[in-house]
């Protein structure tokens, strides 16, 4: 019966040649893609993550919370609730209504800054994750944006 360490090593791809200690290339059928899910939360749950960053991006694009919600396939009520929860946790407004209801919403400076800082944080973490993956795994790994992922993350 094989030992636990023999079973573990049998399940992993071989990384080093037995004779020379050099790394052997390991073939994979499809190049793996790193996917990261990072968010900020309090004891009450998530208050900011990629979904809310997307929502702020769409509000900025459309100038409307309702159109942003529709574009993301969510209800106006759900979108408004997410914005309000983040505003409550941070104590700042993320969006402001334009002069009239027909003109919609704009991001506040705080909303724009939060979206941009989240994207920067995400990109830095992804860069480090890719660097570590190249160091650890015997096959190439690419980032979501390299695979042709969401243009929002390619900024």
UniProtKB/TrEMBL annotation:
Gene3D superfamilies registered for this protein in UniProt: Winged helix-like DNA-binding domain superfamily/Winged helix DNA-binding domain
Basic and acidic residues: bias regions: 15-25
Region (Disordered): 1-26
Top-level taxon: Bacteria
Protein name: Putative transcriptional regulator, ModE family
Limits of the HTH lysR-type domain: 56-112
GO molecular function: DNA-binding transcription factor activity
């Amino acid at each position: 019966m094989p030992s636990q360490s023999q079973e573990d090593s049998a399940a992993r791809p071989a990384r080093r040649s037995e004779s020379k200690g050099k790394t052997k290339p390991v073939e994979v059928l499809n190049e793996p893609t790193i996917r990261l899910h990072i968010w900020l939360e309090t004891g009450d749950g998530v208050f900011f993550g990629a979904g809310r960053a997307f929502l702020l991006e769409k509000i900025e694009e459309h100038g409307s919370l309702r159109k942003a919600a529709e574009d993301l396939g969510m209800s106006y009520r759900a979108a408004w609730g997410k914005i309000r929860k983040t505003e409550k946790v941070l104590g700042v407004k993320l969006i402001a209504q334009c002069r009239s209801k027909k003109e919609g919403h704009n991001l506040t400076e705080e909303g724009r800054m939060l979206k941009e800082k989240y994207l920067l944080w995400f990109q830095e973490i992804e860069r480090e994750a890719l660097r570590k993956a190249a160091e650890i795994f015997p096959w190439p790994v690419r980032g979501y944006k390299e695979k042709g992922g969401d243009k929002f993350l390619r900024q």
